[in-house]
């Protein structure tokens, strides 16, 4: 597989020579391209939106092309500046100030983006949530962050348990519910209408927090990864060299803003580079996606392996019904990109799909395939110039090529997370090896410096590109009266990468049936989130546990895959 190589396509790429850039790169040269380098005044929202209007003459350029089955709308950079100013004024009016946490819990829409940018302009910390989250997931995140406000829609309001969230004072409602507004609920549109389109931006320190994103680990509740304004340096430069964004590009990032990709590369990278960005709402449908590429004349397209695999499964004929010749550059992130998918991309689009690797915690892209570099299908590519990534052993020794080990990044890249919210111990776990961030992924580097993903070291499940912590699912499962114990693993799946499989034991008095299975699945769906519900449940009399009572997920996985179970010395009788 390693021998396979797709050569560079002819074209005028922003990054001309990878090795040369690596040798000469300096983050300070990038900093000089921002206004704050001259003025000393920093706010990422200013650099991404207002500056395009006030300093670069891009006020009438479309920032956002939004579409879903019911709506089609274009928002210019000037409109985006004014609407985010309006929302910033609304927040101020309600006494919400710098450093406070304001969450967003709604489907993609132009209102979402104006709200998000407004939050950042006030110096508040934005906490975007997936609309798929159910009550417990919402409560855990808002509660941990002590959020003071949330922006949501009438359809989702019942999933916000106000009585359990003492810090939550204001609920901005985009759309008025039929029953009218409840206590603490505020009409988003009415407030916006009255608010001034001018706002005195809150100038912050580069190191001031900006974004709180909850993500799953293998133990405990989801943790709040905190990012700061300084990340913009990396979002801008990776947008230029990895996304290869140029002035006239129409760029489409398919990720939801509840996920880090939908923020770093759905908002910051395109806006900092002053391009027009496409957002498609609604559910995934292959034909709609091709239509989005065609109608918007998308030139740069950033998506995920699961989506590409689903498009692949929808058949090549569907592609032929659409003119997608505008697409110049295609990228993928979130899970391993199968070589087969890369080959399919060559066949049907005549384009290389450029895989890249990064995490919620890294805030921005770390390893990538660049347009100016041959692609090896199955490889994530090479570290970004100015960032050092390596394969290290558990003591921190850098391993030679072809040896598998911990994928690690030299501490200190611009968009690195700065904290785990209220959990210093968890944060420090990532940096246990002096000088390095240890990702939790295993990989190796080949002799030409390309990195190859091997797997997760912990039990985190990656289903359709979404990180699901087995612990959260197990905790929910055992809340069901029929479930005694639960162990959850990721089971390999050709389309979703992994699916969630649960092993459970039943409590006395319950017998297994299809109805009970459906009921348990539904229980997790309603309690946690649809994507966190197990697609398979297997009942066992007893689950493998350590003497201290921890479910041994690696044994469950070995059972599932028919592999040897390994060392069982810590297992109870
Ligand atoms: C996995 C996504 C293989 C990996 C931006 C990582 C990948 C986790 C790739 C982070 C890739 C991401 N190849 N695996 N190109 N990109 N991953 O935080 O296990 O949702 O640690 O951020 O996804 O997921 P997260």
What does this structure look like?
The protein is of the alpha/beta class and 573 residues long. The chain folds into 2 domains: 18-445, 3-Layer(aba) Sandwich (Rossmann fold), CATH 3.40.50.12780; 460-561, GMP Synthetase, Chain A, domain 3 (2-Layer Sandwich), CATH 3.30.300.30. 30% of the residues lie in helices and 23% in strands. It has 18 helices and 26 strands. The chain has a 9-stranded mixed β-sheet, with helices on both faces. Strands 4-3-5-6-7 form a 5-stranded parallel β-sheet, sandwiched between helices. It has a 4-stranded antiparallel β-sheet with strand order 17-18-20-21, with no helix packed on it. The mean pLDDT is 94. Residues 215, 260-261, 333-336, 355-360, 380, 439-441, 453, 456, 462, 467 line the site of 5'-O-[(S)-ethoxy(hydroxy)phosphoryl]adenosine.
Short description:
With about 575 residues, the protein is of the alpha/beta class.
**Can you give the helix content as a percent range?**
25-40%
Query: What does the largest sheet look like?
Result: 9 strands, mixed
Q: Round the Cα radius of gyration to an integer and report it.
A: 24 Å
Number of helical elements = 18
Content of β-strand: 15-25%
- What is the CATH top level name of the largest domain? Alpha Beta
Tally of DSSP β-strands: 26
The average pLDDT value, as a whole number, equals 94
Q: Label the overall shape.
A: globular
What distance separates the N and C termini?
A: 44 Å
Write the CATH architecture name of the largest domain.
3-Layer(aba) Sandwich
Which small-molecule species are bound to the chains here?
Answer: 5'-O-[(S)-ethoxy(hydroxy)phosphoryl]adenosine
Low-confidence segments: none
CATH homologous superfamily annotation of the largest domain: ANL, N-terminal domain
Number of domains: 2
Cross-sheet strand order for the largest sheet: 2-1-11-10-12-13-14-15-16
- The secondary structure category is alpha/beta
InterPro entries: AMP-bd_C (IPR025110), AMP-bd_C_sf (IPR045851), AMP-binding_CS (IPR020845), AMP-dep_synth/lig_dom (IPR000873), ANL_N_sf (IPR042099)
Protein name: acetate--CoA ligase
Family: Belongs to the ATP-dependent AMP-binding enzyme family.
EC number: 6.2.1.1
